[in-house]
Amino acid sequence: MMPKRTVKIAPSILSADFGRLREEIDAVIAAGADRIHFDVMDGHFVPNISVGLPVLESVAKRFKGKITLDAHLMIERPERYAQRFVAAGADIVTVHTECSGCADAVRIIRDSGAVAGVVLKPATSADAALPYLDDIGVVLVMTVEPGFGGQRFQPEQLPKIHKLRDIIDSRGLSVEIEVDGGINPETAKPAIAAGATVLVAGNAVYKSADYAEAIKKLR
Ligand code: DX5
Ligand code: ZN
Predict the structure, then answer these.
(1) Nearest protein Cα to ligand 1, atom 4
(2) Fewer CB within a 10 Å sphere, N or C end of the chain?
């Protein structure tokens, strides 16, 4: 029997009501969230634009130290902005392995004093994360194509989570596996069973009537 891991829940504010962002973050903290997942999109790496540095800075002013701020950068050339996301208040900054500046960004994030992570798009194999495992705190496995909330979970990604879990455990590393996209009470189960320790949830939390109940159902 595998030891039961504690699962952390990271609501994605992409699905929150941005006009009431402060209340929306207060509400998920009160509801038991472990982190705030902050999706940054540049309209190039993904076909959508979301929020960036000024919004993170405002959020961090109010919430830094109260909850872990997890910035997921879906942007080209992440090495150009990585340091500024740490300075703006991110505790964790994750960058896509598909970007040319990924390795530089990881180094910059660490040097700036935050936890670095790498992200794998659905078509990217687990192997892309391997060179980074000694330098990062988290691998983020996308279970949808990045760019939009509210998409369907891709169960085809489960073997990738399994593989990463095996490698991380066999090397005795404490790297977290975070899963992002289409997480709900049904899809959370196989993701956790495959070895995920952090679940990002946008719609499953922010489009629910009761955030505490929604978070509880995901664990
Ligand atoms: C997609 C984002 C996700 C998104 C998840 O590009 O990285 O974090 O907000 O939303 P749901 O949980 O609704 O799929
Ligand atoms: Zn995300």
Answers:
(1) 149
(2) N
CA atoms of 1 and 108, how far apart (whole Å): 39
Could you tell me if 41 and 50 are in contact, meaning their C-beta atoms sit under 8 angstroms apart? yes
- With tokens 């960004």, the residue in question is 105
Contact 135, 116 (CB under 8 A): yes
Beta strands 92-96 and 115-120 are: parallel
Q: What span, in angstroms and rounded, lies between the C-alpha atoms of 115 and 90?
A: 9
pLDDT in tens, 158-200: 999 999 999 999 999 999 999 999 999 999 999 999 999 999 9
* Count of all residues that appear for the chain in the document: 219
Residue ranges of domains in the chain: 8-218
Residues 6 or more apart in contact with residue 132 via CB below 8 angstroms: 97, 103, 106, 116, 118, 139
Active site residue 180: yes
Contact 204, 184 (CB under 8 A): yes
Q: Which residues have C-beta atoms less than 6 Å from ligand 1?
A: 12, 14-15, 37, 39, 72, 144, 146-151, 180-183, 200-204
Thinking of the domain 8-218, which architecture would CATH place it in? Alpha-Beta Barrel (3.20)
**Tens-place pLDDT, residues 88-120:** 999 999 999 999 999 999 999 999 999 999 999
